[in-house]
Amino acid sequence: MANQSSLTVPSTEQDDAVVLCPNGRVDGTNVTILQGAVRERLEAGQTRLVFDMVDLNYISSAGLRVLLMAARDLQAQGGKAVFCNLSEQIRQVFEITGFDKILAVHGNREDALATL
Amino acid sequence: MSTPAKILVVDDEEDLELLMRQRFRRQVRRGEYELHFARNGREALDVLAEMPEIRLVLSDINMPVMDGLTLLSQLEEIEANISAVVVSAYGDMANIRTAMNRGAFDFVTKPIDFNDLQVTVEKTLRHIQVLEDALASRDRLVALRQELVVASQVQTSVLPAALPVTEHFDVQAEMIPAREIGGDFYDFFSVDEYRMGLVIADVSDKGIPAALFTMVSRALLKAAARNHESPSACLYEVNQLVSQDNDACMFVTLFYAVLDLRDGRLRYCNGGHNPPRLICQGEVQEVPSSDDIALGIFMEHEFHDNELVLGVGDALFLYTDGITEACNASEEEFGEGRLDELLARRADADIPDLIAEVVGAVEEFAGGVAQFDDMTCLALRMNSNKPA
Predict the structure, then answer these.
(1) Phi-psi bin for B327: left (phi > 0), alpha (psi -120 to 50), beta?
(2) CA angle, B124 as apex, B122 and B130 as ends, to 5°?
């Protein structure tokens, strides 16, 4: 099996929302780290999540699936997940797959927080 | 432990049997231990042959017929997972060392301190349990791996084994999964006498869940292709079906095209997949498509058909992102630039050679860095139109 790519998911609280800032690469080898970080927040009852992608270099389809799941789960609970600071490459992945039409994507963190 | 631990005591002293039964009567009554006895090594082997479920042997060293050290050597030869505890005179370090070197798990000294013996037996039984659990896990793992191998064969067998050979086109595909079973697939089939369907797809995530989703998507698309002429109508139908009750949020990016061999007309719909390449007179360009989305993420999406004409000599190259996102040791991606450059440089190559060169170039670029995504590519060149 492939070696695990490096990924950390530091988070901060800002304006009554939780900002998750995945750092590194998300792919099939480490997607459970991202999934765990999201689940932890959902289980703690937090319903407003910002995914700030400023430190994310790469995301595979396995990672996109986790983001979609987070958005769906939050929506079902009356909450919301928003996304910001996509690098050119990640924006391209969002555009090709159509995720930019399904997920709430914003320019920077302030814009994202303002929509919550 | 639910069944009693079967313990074989090997000693030529007759009173020991009585003493053991006396000292361990509580454990025997509670169904924790079951004691068996033998007078020497030879008898012990006979008992073990009859009761292969015995895992713990307590053995004296000095005995007639076959001594304890010889018994230990014999135990090593029969392939039972038996742990032995030797009982030896206090100070008989030479024999104790020999016994340990022959695989004994522990020892107790004579005269027997039954409290110490009790502790030693408990400890050895725990060790045996750990060993048995590990062996059971290993067996389960072996069985699981075997199932994966079979799953991998099933998955490979549903891909078109030999792509059709006709004078009108050449076609070749390659799929290299990152694990035993993959989340990519391609397909190539006749829609009718004049038209061929071609598909490339990539399911979110890898492994067994992805593989199941792969099989479903592939079958649904093939079924839809029989009902609808329009690729977008096919994708709409598949999307409806895979989006229902999709709690796991699985999705698939899928490019489906129908090629009319009479005039090279290619009708296609791109469901969120990397744009394929059109290789036309040495030039490489992206196959343009409407803004459609991956299947499984939004049920209400309306898909769109696009169209282009594949001239005689033109080629199509379809791929999954495992090709362009393959990384080398410095986490640099192979990228679309290198792919397009290679396709342009080898624009006139035979289709099987082109596929082999792309795969070869990606592997050389990765330079042994483990592949984390499935890699799939399919290429087709139009050689002539089929008379109507």
Answers:
(1) beta
(2) 105
Put simply, the answer to whether A65 touches B206 (Cβ < 8 Å) is: no
Which residues have CB under 8 Å from B367's CB, separation 6+? Answer: B328, B329
Please list every residue in chain A whose beta carbon sits closer than 8 Å to the beta carbon of residue B301. 98
- Chain A residues whose CB is inside 8 A of the B213 CB are none
Q: How many CA atoms lie within 13 A of B178 on its CB side?
A: 29
Instruction: Count the neighbouring beta carbons within 10 Å of the beta carbon of residue B42.
Output: 16
For chain B positions 347-376, those within 8 Å of chain A (CB to CB) are 370-373
Spatial distance between the Cα atoms of B158 and B202, rounded to a whole number of angstroms: 16
Angle in degrees, 0-180, between the axes of helices B41-50 and B68-77, rounded to the nearest 10? 30
Helix (H) and strand (E) counts for chain B?
A: 11, 15
The residue in chain B having the minimum alpha-carbon distance to the alpha carbon of residue A96 is B272
pLDDT of residue B43: 94
Q: Which residues pair with B271 in a beta bridge?
A: B254
Cα–Cα distance for residue pair B45/B133, rounded to 1 Å: 25
State the average pLDDT over residues B360-374.
90
pLDDT of B1 above 60: no
Q: What three-state secondary structure class fits B238?
A: helix
Distance from CA of A56 to the nearest CA of B (A): 13
Inform me whether the C-beta atom of residue B202 falls under 8 Å from chain A C-beta atoms: yes
Which contiguous run of DSSP H or E holds residue B213? helix B207-227
Closest CA to B59 of B107, B98, B24: B107
Residues of B in contact with A31 (CB under 8 A): 205
A32-58 average pLDDT score: 94
Tokens 């070197």 appear where?
Answer: B101
Instruction: Note whether ipTM > 0.95 here.
Output: no
Nearest by CB: A102 against B250, B297, B370: B297
- Confidence (pTM): 0.76
Q: Are B12 and B64 in contact (CB under 8 A)?
A: yes
Structural contact between residues A2 and B206, judged by C-beta atoms closer than 8 angstroms = no
- Ramachandran category for residue B241: left, alpha or beta (phi over 0 → left; psi -120 to 50 → alpha): alpha
The confidence score (pLDDT) of residue B203 equals: 92
Which residues on chain A place their C-beta less than 8 Å from a C-beta of chain B?
A: 1-3, 5, 25, 27-29, 31, 57-58, 60-62, 64-65, 68-69, 72, 96-99, 101-102
